[in-house]
Amino acid sequence: MRILLVALNAKYIHTNLAIRYLREEVSKVYSEVLLREFSINDHLDRVAGEIFEIKADIIGFSCYIWNLKETLALVRQLRPVCPEVRFVIGGPEVSFEAEEFLLDHPEVDALVMGEGEKSFLELLQTWQEGHDPSQVPGLAWRFDGQIIVNPPSPKALSLNDLPFPYGEEEDFTGRLVYVETTRGCPFNCQYCLSSTFQGVRFLDPERFRKMLRCLFKNGARTIKFVDRTFNANKRHAMRILDIVREESVNHPDTQEIRVHCEMAGDLLDGEWMEYFRNYPRGLIQLEIGVQSTHRPTLEIVSRPQNFEKWSQYISEMKAFGIPLHLDLIAGLPEEDWQTFGKSFNEVYTVAPDMLQLGFLKVLRGSGLRLQSMRYGLVFAPDPPYTILATKVLSYSELLQLQRIEDVLDRYYNSGKFKHALGIITTLFSTPFDFYHEFAEFWQQKGWFGRQWQGKALFDKLWEFLRELSEEKLGTDPFSWSRIRDALRFDYYLWERPNYIPDYLQYHGLKGTMDSEVWKTTSEEIRKSSYWESVIPERIGMDRRQWFRNTAVAYFTAELDNDEESKKQGWYLFHYQQGKVKAYRYDEEG
């Protein structure tokens, strides 16, 4: 019997952990177990053709909210040309309302609900032996025109009894690889499916070490833990991170390795800060789900937290060189436009490296879905079940928030406008007000839905500022000079510029100099031996290389950001391997 396991990932660089667990479990009994991964952006005809030509007897699909629509379209296309094939679907997206799902999708033969590593193998064996699968736990299947839903297994699987998911040689170079060291979550958030079962199970740390070594050997450099709350148990989490450090410290590509963990801010404390203080810089990246700071909302979703208390640790983590992503969810019950704006401002003020503005997904099986009428939750009927309106937040307001999310990603989350945004947001009552006004300006101009080259974003921001000039800045030359310099500084940090737009040209000092004198001064600064003591790479570069990888500019305004204060004067920008760093020219050096 030939078995094919398929995943349609959100992006090509992603991998699917679930089908690798299944492959290793099923391979204990069956010799022909194949695995194929595609992207939801691939052409359906090509994917269907490739699957068809494998000639599998049973095809299993791993389904989530982001790929269910494409997966079902694929099964519908394959069913007429593969009448003898049995199609099985598993994953969180089909683990609830199973009978209704099979009624709506007659092309699917069976659903594996919940944890499938053991159930899927039992199903295969039952089918091969010609028996009905009535004793397979957590299975929904068809029999004599009826849909049968088997009860789940009374006992949760132990992570230490599961097979090693990365047993086969694979090339993970340039891909994002997922691992798990826990299943379950200590919290009971009503928007999350983890609230449907209790308890947390842990993987033995030494089994994780074996997995990590295999991933490193096969080219993996970016690893994401799928643990719902990585720091659910402090001792376990620290031991896992100890292993990451031990296994990566002597790796030849140690500077390229990064692990991504999702932690709960409430569980951070002084001991964690001391641990992070001594952890290698750049090795770990953290994501923390704030979701909201509105207490009534947090109580409704069973996720009470004290953001004001645990956010004190954010500046420490940033000082330790830990990239930090904070998440907000728009559309939660009882959070209206004003209170969401307050949540936004409170999170924005702590200056995370990324502020991810997401929208509530009213998932099948979640507590909020069961109580959707009580809270007036209106959501899309199809995956990913995105919120459309609530009792206190209209569809129109959610559309505005979607536009804010777009602008936030282009400007703040890109990290390319750090100096400019640091000044511009202070011109508005709150950061939320700035992003709202800017997003509506984009809407009026018809800029959404189009692809813009990076530097065109500078033009858009400047046009917005000019439109608001009298209201926000008047004719104060100092204010305009500060903004222009901040934006120009960011422009140089983006990449080595071939030209500078007119609105970013500096005429203050340059206006007192002959253009040739200005050019000569900047070139003399660039050729100065001063840089050999500041930038070690300078010594090994000839004149042509040096000039190709540097730029010089003068700034009059002092630019403040979270990292350091940029004093006025000449700056040299050094561009190397996709990275850029600015150095102030010390004329006395």
UniProtKB/TrEMBL annotation:
B12-binding domain segment(s): 1-134
Residues covered by the Radical SAM core domain: 171-409
Superkingdom in the source lineage: Bacteria
Keywords: Iron, Iron-sulfur, Metal-binding, S-adenosyl-L-methionine
SUPFAM superfamilies per UniProt: Cobalamin (vitamin B12)-binding domain, Radical SAM enzymes
Cellular component GO terms, alphabetical: cytosol
Gene Ontology MF terms: 4 iron, 4 sulfur cluster binding; catalytic activity; cobalamin binding; metal ion binding
Co-factor(s): [4Fe-4S] cluster
Record has Metal-binding as a keyword: yes
Name the UniProt record assigns to this protein: Fe-S oxidoreductase
Lineage: Bacteria, Bacillati, Bacillota, Clostridia, Eubacteriales
